Amino acid sequence: MKSKWLIAGLVVVAVSGLAAFKTIERRVFKKNLLRSKPVGELYLIVDKSDYELKVYDAEGWYATYPVVFGNKDLSDKLIEGDRRTPEGTFKILSKRPHQKWHKMLMLDYPTAESYAKFKERKTKGIIPQSAKIGGGIAIHGTWPHDDLVVDDFTNWTNGCVALKNEDLDELDAIVDIGTKVIIQR
């Protein structure tokens, strides 16, 4: 009888391990192998539902990188401190190294669109009148040697978009200040 339970336990552990491997395997970045470099002006689409950052150029899709966010609740940012990633159209304001998270591609959040949504939510009573909109949203890397947080969908930021440091290096090399970034769910 004990051996049946032992075998059942081993089967469960093996299946769980394969499921975890499949998740990690699925999140390997993809790139258009027909082109070595992007062509023309780039733009980025961050899809929160799929945990992906996609790069598009003048010829269409160029690359996809796995990403994670702040809060497990993937809805739009409401107020400062909610750890949600804002949705909308943004631009890269600056690019710089970062002591903790490798590099930062700072976004222009909050935008006029962000302020309009924020004001409307206050008017409708969805958020308190005393709430603040927040700021400091970026695309950045992870702690050194901590790529697993991206592979296993661990949302850990304060509302930023995080990707593996190696992927961020590739992205940083091809995007410019002013690059359009669309964040959607």
From TrEMBL:
This is L,D-transpeptidase. Belongs to the YkuD family. Gene3D superfamilies: L,D-transpeptidase catalytic domain-like. The keyword Cell wall biogenesis/degradation applies. Pathway: Cell wall biogenesis; peptidoglycan biosynthesis. It comes from Niastella soli. PROSITE patterns: LD_TPASE. The active site is at 140 (proton donor/acceptor), 160 (nucleophile). Keywords: Cell shape, Cell wall biogenesis/degradation, Peptidoglycan synthesis, Transferase. It holds the Pfam family YkuD. SUPFAM superfamilies: L,D-transpeptidase catalytic domain-like. Residues 42-184 form the L,D-TPase catalytic domain.
